[in-house]
Amino acid sequence: MFSKTVVENMAGGSWIRAMFELGNQLKAQYGTDKVYDFTLGNPDPEPPEAVLAQMEQLVRTPNIHKYMSNAGFEDVRGKIAAYMERESGVAFTAKEIIMVTGAAAGLSITLKALMNPGEEVIVLAPYFMEYNSYVGNQNGKVVPVKTLPDTFQPDIPAIEKAITANTKAIILNSPNNPSGAIYTEESLQALARVLDEAEKEFGHPVYVISDEPYVKIVYDGVKVPSVAKIFKNAITVNSFSKSLALPGERIGYIAVNPTIEDADTLVAAMVYCNRTLGFVNAPGLFQKVIADHLDEAAGLEAYKERRDLLYDILVDAGFSCMKPQGAFYLFAKCPMEDDSAFSQMAIKHNIILVGGSGFGYPGYFRLAYCVSYDTIRNSAQAFKDLYKEATGK
Amino acid sequence: MFSKTVVENMAGGSWIRAMFELGNQLKAQYGTDKVYDFTLGNPDPEPPEAVLAQMEQLVRTPNIHKYMSNAGFEDVRGKIAAYMERESGVAFTAKEIIMVTGAAAGLSITLKALMNPGEEVIVLAPYFMEYNSYVGNQNGKVVPVKTLPDTFQPDIPAIEKAITANTKAIILNSPNNPSGAIYTEESLQALARVLDEAEKEFGHPVYVISDEPYVKIVYDGVKVPSVAKIFKNAITVNSFSKSLALPGERIGYIAVNPTIEDADTLVAAMVYCNRTLGFVNAPGLFQKVIADHLDEAAGLEAYKERRDLLYDILVDAGFSCMKPQGAFYLFAKCPMEDDSAFSQMAIKHNIILVGGSGFGYPGYFRLAYCVSYDTIRNSAQAFKDLYKEATGK
Known about the structure:
Two copies of one chain form a homodimer. Chain A has helices spanning 4-12, 15-30, 49-58, 74-88, 102-114, 130-136, 156-162, 185-202, 227-230, 263-276, 284-290, 300-317, 339-348, 373-378, 380-391; strands at 36-37, 97-100, 120-125, 141-146, 167-172, 207-211, 234-239, 252-256, 329-333, 351-352, 354-355, 364-368. By secondary structure, chain A is α/β, with parallel strands linked by helices. The first copy, chain A, folds into two domains: 4-45 and 299-391, Aspartate Aminotransferase, domain 1; 49-290, Aspartate Aminotransferase, domain 2. In chain A, strands 2-8-7-6-5-3-4 form a seven-stranded mixed beta sheet, with helices on both faces. Chain A has a three-stranded antiparallel beta sheet with strand order 9-12-11. In chain A, strand 5, helix 8 (185-202) and strand 6 (207-211) form a beta-alpha-beta unit. The radius of gyration of chain A is 21 Å and the shape is globular. Chain A starts with a helix and ends with a helix. Chains A and B meet through helix 1, helix 3, helix 5, helix 6 and helix 10 of A and helix 1, helix 3, helix 5, helix 6 and helix 10 of B.
């Protein structure tokens, strides 16, 4: 009676959300401090004080709650253009910026504006599986290409092999969810050369959609290379869910490189899709709220402490994993072949995690460490016990 | 290079937005007080004082800006369920309520959850043309059926004739944009009988999607009949854009009648679509803001004064029109056959309006009277001159 596609697809559901619901059940059963729930990337700090103060202060600004242009407030777009230019050296102006209802909206809008049915989008595994839905909504095809084991850097020859005449775009997500890797300047430059070659061979661009919600969540002074600078056909999608701890408010933007051929038409198509997909415009108050906080990184110090602690606990327990360079996820090697069986085993130790199969990269598991320091510290023995049970050692 | 469908469709664009842009140009040229811009349904009052005060007060509520369930905050959904039960007598509970990013999002999500490619949705003209996009996104077909001239009430025999085995739903919008009509209890009961017959004949329900953003903007003590009460297969979509003057903040809800067969599956499908279309969840702060203001109608008195004034001015100038019963639009008969030529003629008199063709109902024109009382008063002579030029009288 309802949409066949939706009813079929929702049976697959979201692994992350399913584990999150299970975590809540266990907490009700055993008590919150006895359950080590590493499932959901829900930033645990409150937004920075300056951001909260600005919300209060902006509430009574005349016209702030009314309809504005579908692309968003002009002054906010101007500030983001200036920020993007500062970060990339590319001459962005307000007209290349579209305010959107979070990065998920930005990706949906971008893919609808770009894609024709049957076209392909390359994603680099491990990856956020929601990309499958956004591409599927346009009757497109996701082509996953695995990143290199251990470093999770792009596998350039594998990407080159995956590109066809039907390739419309590649989605990059660095700092990466779930691996915590930051793609290096060298990797990205090599990818740019491959895409230039493909453009010559197939006669049309391969767009680079850079999903960057974690760009401010970076450790050890590592610099995230600017995708907008490296790729002439870059479309940057960003949100303030992580950097300002505002995930429930749905605020972000799209920045279309002015170096894209017919960039004006693409922007107009995106604004049209923003309207006709039913987003209409990004929430007015939060557009204004974020405009003066583009460089902040809420809770960065706390995330770093937790990363260090969790990494040490895992290594100490016997697990093998890369130390994350950014975001707030740790992607460790599963000591059993079947990561789904492993996540079930973890539940017995009151650890809730998401298997790598949930990110198109079996044999690993993800821990979201945007949880309290105490939760991580208290989980040490459970991880030791889990490792012993899984390996028999 | 981009989506062919999008690039083609956006060439058609939005009549309303196009006239809105033109209005801004004229204002820059002649001065704001010399241009009578009746194009956009952008509520001109600020939100009620109590709503603004609540925003300020809620800003520092712990966890209010974080991810919540994709369906929205449980307490807010409970309050809306109680409100819906009070209005309809139907036993709604929180689990039938989904918080969404405005009514446009609610319609997009509803149609995606319901429709299979090629299925049909009946809309009653005059109607908000954006419905074409929302249905088109699902590769569905819009079947417009004209309401009766003069009263703009549903033409029941015509609807009966338009229903086929492929009819998935009918969209109702009462109080209506653009006509200002409120569909009567009698009309709706007759429609319910027709839909019951169709369900028997075709073996599946025809869902009633009730788009109700104007349900609180009602004049002269007229009561809006409850669609959720009259139709067992009702899906109510509402927003606070008009009732609380918050259109830029994108906050609304879907209420699925518990009397729908497999209502639980439909709700789950909608929550899934909320996530996978990229909405994720309705903005957290505004979910909490609206929860205690479900019965307010911002600016109602002022709208009524403006309706009365504009109606008198039009009739005095010679135009023929129905006095609107709700919403803030007046839909008058065009004194020339070609409403597009008429809207061009109006521009010469500094009047910006939208022709009925922009609502699938040629030969009429719409005036949005959510503009200042002075703008309306000052437009009197211009309407007289326009009528004279159009009729030669």
